[in-house]
């Protein structure tokens, strides 16, 4: 029996991971799904139940510590333990730093509470149970957490912070037999960038990135779950992402030019 929690499970990558896990494990899966959108969360839960999984849905805002801890408590109480925590909840943002006014800068902190602190709080609450099961933690970061992307100062900061936190935690948990996998998706065909913050901290409604050749949600979810199964340290997606990470060490200026080229012309800094 696999007992797994997925945050950010009402849409996009999180919802697809839930469906793929249910398809693969069926009745052997005890799945806890968490997200803010209750209607979407219930719909995904029903899809997974249809595939044979046992599912508990817990409406959760990961920017609130108490809700993160309540999520873990509910899952453990329902299923008697925990084998894997997938920290997938997150929000995107796209704005040049100079375009953000002083009165609007507070959304940088809100984004950090969701992308970083939500993962930290959930992981802290889950840790005793994962040590008991010698289970696994997955942190869904971004290629923007490996290479700074212009127009994404807040988002990159939150994802770099995730990368550093979970890298250190991986080493701490190695003697306990708990694996930590950090996933670094590139541009994936979801609506996350459209729902993310603009300079005023409002839903952007558009994407600032060129999305030609975006990875499918199904492929991204499959790669993350394969990393979980194999207990990999990292899952760096796309050849360009792997190449950029290497080139950054020897020719950082070239990587900066590549990052600028990924922006749409109307949002590039001048």
From TrEMBL:
EC number(s) on file: 1.3.1.87
Pfam families named in the record: adh_short
EC category name: oxidoreductase
InterPro entries: KR_dom (IPR057326), NAD(P)-bd_dom_sf (IPR036291), Sc_DH/Rdtase_CS (IPR020904), SDR_fam (IPR002347)
A GO molecular function held by the record: 2,3-dihydroxy-2,3-dihydro-phenylpropionate dehydrogenase activity
Keywords assigned: NADP, Oxidoreductase
UniProt similarity note: Belongs to the short-chain dehydrogenases/reductases (SDR) family.
Superkingdom of the source species: Bacteria
Protein name listed in UniProt: 3-phenylpropionate-dihydrodiol/cinnamic acid-dihydrodiol dehydrogenase
UniProt domain Ketoreductase: residue ranges: 2-190
């Amino acid at each position: 029996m696999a007992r797994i929690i997925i945050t950010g499970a009402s849409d996009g990558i999180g919802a697809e991971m839930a469906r793929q896990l249910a398809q693969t494990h069926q009745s052997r899966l005890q799945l806890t799904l968490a997200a803010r959108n209750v209607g979407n969360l219930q719909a995904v839960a029903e899809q997974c139940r249809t595939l044979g999984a046992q599912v508990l849905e817990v409406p959760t805002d990961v920017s609130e510590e108490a809700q993160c801890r309540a999520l873990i408590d509910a899952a453990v109480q329902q299923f008697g333990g925990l084998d894997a925590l997938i920290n997938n909840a997150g929000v995107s943002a796209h704005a040049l730093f100079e375009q953000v006014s002083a009165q609007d800068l507070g959304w940088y902190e809100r984004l950090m509470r969701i992308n970083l602190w939500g993962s930290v709080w959930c992981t802290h609450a889950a840790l005793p149970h994962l040590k008991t099961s010698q289970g696994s933690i997955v942190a869904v970061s971004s290629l923007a957490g490996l290479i700074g992307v212009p127009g994404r100062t807040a988002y990159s900061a939150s994802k770099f912070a995730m990368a550093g936190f979970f890298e250190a935690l991986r080493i701490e948990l190695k003697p306990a037999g708990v694996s930590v996998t950090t996933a670094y998706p590139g541009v994936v065909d979801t609506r996350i960038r459209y729902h993310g913050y603009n300079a005023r901290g409002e839903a952007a409604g558009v994407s600032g990135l060129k999305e030609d050749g975006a990875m499918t949600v199904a492929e991204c979810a499959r790669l993350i779950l394969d990393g979980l199964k194999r207990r990999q340290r990292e899952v760096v997606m796309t050849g360009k992402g792997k190449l950029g990470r290497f080139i950054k060490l020897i020719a950082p200026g070239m990587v900066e030019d590549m990052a600028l080229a990924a922006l749409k012309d109307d949002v590039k800094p001048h």
